[in-house]
Design brief:
415 residues; two-stranded parallel ribbon; 17 strands
Length: 415
């Protein structure tokens, strides 16, 4: 497309910046000079916008307005099937957060080393074979996610220069250089058991390490020495909860994923700081009654294929603010759940829930409500009393019509 065509398309006229009033009385030469000067000034913008159009990137993600583009601090291009990035992206010098995950990017323009303000970058799932060189210049980087299906085999020696790094996630086969010992501010790690063992001396030095995700089957016992941990997740299926978890008395979040029928050990009830618990299993798992005594729990996630009814102890968790139940056989929500009045987020996904009970109106603090891929055919009018509701997701349900009083929910931004 010609410069004149791009100028017209993106409305680079005086309405936005320095107006060019196209009046017959003005000299055409003056007008032409103004357009030429503006096209030279905004050339990188035109390049970036044309690339965005070619990749169907919406204006909400990459603004087509000069001022908004220059001020952009966050760019989320996840799952956009992007194969290349334009050199012009290096001009987004105020950018602090960049998500390029789940694309097909194999190389990056040199200009990206100009993104000096970047604090967060995610390059997961791009089939990368080499560690991107531009990251070397990002001294303000705090979060680096470059795992999940990338093929990088070795971290570069200069990784140790990113001394402000707080979070690191790499692919399962990558090896670490000795310079990794310099990254002492790390607070969040996602590594396999083998990687943990290979870097044992470094990890034990991470006094600020608060969050650890263990990937893979092998789980080293010495992890029980990391008593400062506040969050522990097992992203691969385990057969039982490792006994050393009971020594992590500061844990606030625990994520468990089981590979076979299991039972939760009683000593989990002694983790008095636990605020978030996630349990996943496609097999039978016993959910003991003592879970109802864990009054500090604010977030509970149950992804259990064999779960056929709401556990009787669940309504006892009166401080619960977030409840996520997925892939279950549950079809009835008991009246006892109406006691969960502090709930702000309630999710039922891929379940057999067939109706929404009237008592839902008791959950007046609800801000987000999901019944995704359930069996709901109609909705109660009581939904209209959830005045704080901001998001309501009812996709993949055989619902024929919505209650008229849903129009009273003035806070809703997504339906």
């Amino acid at each position: 497309m010609s410069t004149r065509g791009l100028m017209s398309k993106y409305n680079l006229t005086e309405r936005q910046e320095a107006p060019i009033a196209l009046k017959k009385s003005r000299h055409l030469m003056s007008v032409a000079n103004n357009i030429l000067a503006k096209s030279q000034l905004e050339g990188w913008m035109l390049e970036l916008w044309q690339w965005a159009d070619e990749n169907y990137i919406e204006d909400e993600l990459l603004p087509r307005n000069k001022s908004a583009l220059k001020a952009l601090i966050e760019l989320n291009l996840m799952l956009m099937d992007i194969e290349r990035l334009p050199s012009a992206i290096g001009n987004l010098k105020n950018l602090k957060k960049l998500d390029l995950s789940d694309n097909d990017i194999l190389e990056f323009p040199e200009s990206m080393c100009n993104l000096k303000e970047l604090e967060f970058i995610c390059l997961d799932d791009n089939s990368l074979k080499e560690f991107p060189l531009f990251i070397k210049e990002l001294y303000k980087l705090k979060v680096l996610q470059i795992g999940k299906y990338n093929l990088i085999e070795q971290l570069p020696d200069w990784i140790g220069n990113l001394k402000d790094l707080r979070e690191l996630r790499v692919n399962k086969s990558v090896k670490f250089p000795d310079s990794i010992m310099s990254l002492v501010k790390i607070e969040k790690l996602a590594l396999t058991g083998n990687q943990l063992d290979a870097n044992k001396s470094w990890i034990k030095r991470l006094k600020n390490l608060k969050s650890l995700t263990v990937e893979g089957i092998y789980i080293p016992d010495w992890l029980g020495e990391l008593v400062q941990l506040e969050k522990l997740s097992f992203s691969w299926e385990i057969t039982e909860v490792p006994i050393w978890v009971k020594d992590l008395t500061l844990l606030k979040h625990l994520g468990l994923k089981f590979s076979r029928p299991s039972e939760l050990p009683n000593w989990l009830s002694n983790l008095n700081h636990l605020e978030s618990l996630s349990i996943a299993s496609q097999s039978f798992i016993c959910l003991p009654d003592w879970l109802g005594n864990m009054q500090n729990i604010k977030a509970l996630s149950l992804k259990i294929g064999s779960l056929a009814e709401i556990p009787k102890w669940l309504p006892n968790l009166v401080n619960l603010e977030r409840l996520f139940i997925s892939a279950s056989k549950i079809n009835v929500l008991p009246d006892s759940m109406s006691s969960l009045t502090k709930l702000k987020k309630l999710f039922f996904i891929h379940s057999n829930v067939s109706y929404v009970p009237d008592w839902i109106s008791n959950l007046v603090e609800l801000e987000e409500l999901w019944f995704l891929d359930c069996q709901i055919k109609e909705l109660p009018c009581s939904l209209g009393y959830l005045v704080n509701l901001k998001r309501l997701n009812l996709r993949r349900n055989p619902i024929s019509e919505l209650p008229e009083n849903l129009s009273h929910l003035t806070e809703i931004t997504q339906l």
